[in-house]
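SAMPLE LOG
Freezer: B-3
Tube label: C17
Construct: single chain, 232 aa
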Amino acid sequence: MLLSFVDALRHLPREDAITFGLFLFVLSWVYPRRIVSLPPVGYRRTTLLWAGTAGSLLVVAVATVVSAHAVPVWGGSGFDGWWRRPAPLVAATLAVAVAGLALRRAPLPAPGERAISARRAWHTFASRVLLWVSGITATLVAVTALWQIAIATSAPKDSRVFGLVPKYTTLPIYMRFNNGYGYVAGAGWPNHLVTLIAIAIAIAVFFVVLRADVDRPLFARSSAPSVRVERE
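STRUCTURE (predicted):
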């Protein structure tokens, strides 16, 4: 099994990675600006730098492993990918949660040195562009998962199917296709329910982390521009 897994890694398609890489490279020339800003020095900069780097590598590693795992390993249930689909999102959520917990350990001003300020909205220091991109992406993934759940049905015992056929089950994982033919795998709530749950958890963690950080006490001598640069 290990040898077949290694052999499958050698034959993974690289066209997608090359295409996205070229697209991002061209975009960096068309729209030359930093997407992420870091505080100049201090605990927050170190924490965010490590969290961003390690978190990104974690997401890439998880996505690579689960994608490679799907190549040589074929399951017979018809919904074996229920955990592989949301795995990268779970890794990203974990990275955000760990970063939020680490930021809460940042040193706070002494009670007499804290500025009095009104409570801010959770998105005060968040990039509007990135918020819209994240929201649209989450919506598209959720709509796709819901559509896959809606079109699924139980496969008739005498159904004609494409591809590898798993063990027969009454679970709604059958997708009708092309005049009576269909696929027995990939659709239905057994395949996509966990993805919807992962999206909901990711949104909740994202909101809680930003909400907890936006109203952290500030130094009384801090200026508004310096605060925004630090928190953005």
